[in-house]
UniProtKB/TrEMBL annotation:
One Pfam family recorded for the sequence: OEP
Tree of life domain: Bacteria
Protein name (Swiss-Prot/TrEMBL): Efflux transporter outer membrane subunit
Signal sequence annotation: 1-34
Entry's localization field: Cell membrane
Taxonomic source organism: Variovorax guangxiensis
């Protein structure tokens, strides 16, 4: 072989070496879809330590879509339905989902065959030195076709990432709905608790007014001093002030419900009514797998998978891009001859683009995508930790509130009995007015505390339902978890069973 032949062969090898290296790297690259999983204890700590709460008998827990029906309150059902139709937070989340889906379709369109038609006209002089210097006209009309061969998965990876983003938005929409449903339920139950407390305060005010009338009669008869009348007047005014404060709290809560249902506070009203809402009982030994239904955790999971897909897309930037193009049509200097067979024209082509030096742009893109994946992993781990915390918080609250309600019930019974005895003895002149007032204050305080404990039980129940993703029935995982070589990176970032206990 001559030296010139060797030189040409070396030049040929040097020209093809980058392409061969890229192909080898492409075969080694992994852009497998990531399926986040987490190692968790079989049961919640508080679910194991506690037992089912002894709430008011209620209907069985409904599905995650209609969990509020378990409270057996038609007014609550109507408010949740109005919020689902008119709440602005839900509407915003729905709009973001529609935007994400449209973007996913836009990205996916790059994988399809691109076809276009066009035409044009030009008039020039002196552009071609081989022709006359006289001005010439060129008319053309035709169609063009292009298609990029997705040899290394760049387009499919980008499409997959956009699709996962849309799935994340869909989960966030479900999370927004659950949040609004829980807020409506908690606001409504708090308002009903205030109604009961207002009724208690009205009864107490009437009792103080009766005592004041009795005290004033005895003062006019000379049996009591003016100081005794002043004491009862003070208790009456203080209780009336507390009643007005409850009226203010109710008005504010009613206005909050108006915003949640997407209505003007000026046009919204909810009449007072007895608090007859049932309190669902919590089954003992809740499995921690119910957290798989939480939409915010599912959204964080999809975000991690989208970040993994984008990392794969960034890695394919090192590989060549191959595009096929074709076109055909007619070209003629005269409009009348434009669509004649003799004026036909066509062309096909292939384009290969291979990066060699880019000043570190592609490496920076890979590092950026990797950093985004790390951030998504950390956010997913945070969502898992917060989810377990919220469930454990509400389970602990329900367990302790159940015990507190029993103790507080005994306190109310004792205080009511003490008030009855003190009133009888006061009317017979056996105890002082201060003893009677102290007994009534104690009864009022204990009855209000019992109402507050009851309200806290309802709030914690709704909070637990929200923390569990909408109930505690049969678990329907929001996403499957197929095994993947890249899942090890996520598993390392997830909390272990011991860390979550």
């Amino acid at each position: 072989m001559t030296s010139s032949s060797l030189s040409r062969a070396g030049a040929l090898r040097a020209a093809w070496l980058p392409l061969v290296a890229a192909l080898v790297l492409a075969g080694c690259a992994s852009t497998a879809e990531l399926a986040p999983t987490t190692v968790a204890p079989l049961q919640f700590k508080e679910a194991v330590a506690g037992s089912a709460t002894s709430g008011t008998p209620a209907a069985p827990m409904q599905s995650a879509g209609t969990w509020w029906h378990s409270f057996g309150d038609p007014v609550l059902d109507g408010l949740v339905d109005r919020a689902a139709a008119n709440n602005t937070s839900i509407q915003q989340a729905a709009a973001r989902l529609a935007e994400a889906r449209a973007l996913a379709r836009t990205v996916d369109s790059d994988r399809s065959l691109q076809v276009g038609v066009g035409g044009g006209a030009s008039r020039a002089q002196g552009l071609d030195r081989n022709q006359s210097n006289r001005p010439s006209t060129l008319l053309n009309a035709g169609a063009s076709v292009s298609y990029e061969i997705d040899l290394f998965g760049r387009l499919s990876g980008a499409s997959n990432a956009a699709s996962l983003d849309a799935q994340s938005r869909e989960a966030l929409l479900q999370s927004a709905k659950l949040l609004v449903q829980a807020e409506v339920a908690q606001s409504y139950l708090a308002l009903r608790a205030i109604d009961d407390e207002r009724a208690l305060m009205r009864d107490t005010v009437e009792a103080y007014r009766s005592t004041l009338q009795l005290t004033e009669r005895r003062q006019r008869a000379g049996d009591l001093a003016e100081l005794d009348v002043a004491r009862v007047q003070t208790e009456l005014a203080s209780t009336e002030s507390d009643a007005l404060a409850l009226d203010r709290q109710r008005a504010v809560m009613e206005h909050a419900l108006a915003v949640l249902t997407g209505e003007l506070a000026s046009n919204f009203s909810l009449p007072s009514a007895p608090w007859t809402t049932a309190l669902p009982s919590i089954p003992a030994g809740l499995p921690s797998s119910v957290l798989e239904r939480r939409p915010d955790v599912a959204a964080a999971q999809k975000t991690v998978m989208a970040a993994q897909a984008r990392l794969g897309v960034a890695q394919t930037a090192w590989f060549p891009q191959i595009s096929l193009t074709g076109g055909g049509g007619f070209a003629s200097p005269d409009l009348g001859d434009l669509f004649k067979w003799s004026a036909r024209s066509w062309g096909i082509g292939a384009l290969l683009s291979l990066p060699i030096l880019d000043g570190g742009r592609r490496e920076a893109g890979v590092q950026s995508a990797s950093a985004q994946l790390d951030g998504a992993l950390a956010n997913y781990r945070t969502e898992v930790l917060v989810a377990f915390k919220e469930v454990e918080d509400q389970l602990a609250s329900l367990r302790l509130l159940d015990e507190q309600a029993a103790v507080q019930g005994r306190a109310v019974s004792s205080a009511r009995r003490a008030t009855t005895l003190s009133d009888s003895r006061y009317r017979n002149g056996m105890v002082s007015q201060l003893d009677l007032l102290d007994a009534r204050r104690s009864e009022l305080r204990n009855r209000r505390q019992a109402l507050q404990v009851k309200s806290a039980q309802y709030q914690a129940t709704v909070g637990l339902i929200r923390a569990l993703g909408g109930g505690w029935g049969q678990v329907q995982p929001l996403a499957a978890a197929p095994s993947s070589p890249d899942a090890t990176r996520l598993s390392a970032a997830m909390p272990s069973a011991s860390a979550l206990e």
